[in-house]
Amino acid sequence: MESKSKKSIIIIGGGPAAMMLACTLDNEKFDVTIVEKGKSIGRKFLVAGKGGFNLTHSENISEMAQKYEGPKSLFDALNTFTNEDLRQWLSDIGIETYIGSSKRVFPIKGIKPIEVLQAIILEMKRKDVKILTETLWSGSFIKNDTIELSQKGIVTKLKAHKVAFAMGGGSWKVTGSDGNWVKYFRLAGVECKPFRPSNCVMKIDWSESINAHFGKPLKNISLRYKDKTIKGELMITKEGIEGSPAYALSYYVGESIGSEKQEIFVDLKPTTSIDKIIKILSSKKKITSILKTDLSLSVGAIALIKSKTSREDFADPKTLAAIIKNLPLQIKGLGELDEAISTVGGVSANAIGDTMELINFSNHFVIGEMLDWNAPTGGYLLQGCFSMGRRLGTLLNKD
Ligand SMILES: Cc1cc2nc3c(=O)[nH]c(=O)nc-3n(C[C@H](O)[C@H](O)[C@H](O)COP(=O)(O)OP(=O)(O)OC[C@H]3O[C@@H](n4cnc5c(N)ncnc54)[C@H](O)[C@@H]3O)c2cc1C
User: 28, 32, 115, 317 - which has most CB atoms within 10 Å?
Assistant: First the structure.
């Protein structure tokens, strides 16, 4: 039963940002309802769990924060609900985590993604959060303390003193995050930036000689774009390159990509100096054998080097070493929006205040991937969403 003395908070969308907000709100003060258009909540969260389920990252929070681009409210959120706070909270609800060799944080072995989701749902039940599934928001803002929604096509009105929007970004539509809300926000005069893919494949037109190497990794490399360099592992695919360094740099490439092709550079031996490589290459052995055995380069890496060098360049230690340290790749574009791990764009930083409240609409807040911010994959995205949900809940509890 809805209490008369309590204020009603409606949270639109059932992703991690929404769930953390619901878990944080004080149920002595608020009646909290999550409204989700799909049949169940947390579908993108479960998709995230299909690969490595990086719940957060274990870097020091100030180091971690440097990987994000976004509004001030995002950084306030990260600093007030850190990665350590998230791990503690997960432990409090029965989900123990561990730090992997990549410094990413995973649920301990044996805990499946669905069990993490169930633990969060149980915590919401403990806090009397109502969950309305198959209920769609299509453009209504609070009027006379009510908000209009549609349940299986039937218009329904819910009491609403405050509304938090958490409808996600614009990728993986199959999970419900279709970005359709943008048109309603724009109609209402809320500034929204166009969506673009982030944490996605970088497309390359490979020469034929690379075809045999699709699906092969380039291990222990670093990838450079302008002044940014990321170490890690790349995968050569039919479309181009994938893997953490490509994902992390895709946001920056996307900022400049247009009619002009962008160039990125692979250092195939980031821990070996160019002088040392020249010395190794100057031995009398066959070059391909030096590349393979003395420089421990994979067949995929050697094929890439060959595709970028003439016969003369290949025979010249100085030129060859320069290519090994700085192999150029022409990026012709980024992967499809719907296939990206995350999207940037959405509600502009200009449209919200420091408390994530919409400037045009008081008592309406925006959290999670709906906002225009970026972070690399590997736990940073979920941490950002959880931190924003936590921060908004804490602020509303103090109201
Ligand atoms: C393949 C993949 C792997 C990933 N792996 C990781 C990872 O390992 N680590 C990491 O940190 N992040 C990862 N992410 C990113 C992470 O899952 C997202 O950043 C996060 O789920 C975004 O959370 P959110 O709360 O903003 O919204 P979402 O999780 O996108 O949820 C939004 C919800 O709102 C609902 N909704 C939308 N419109 C309406 C409407 N009009 N009315 C009612 N409901 C609506 C949707 O149905 C959806 O359930 C991954 C993402 C993908 C796609």
Answer: 32
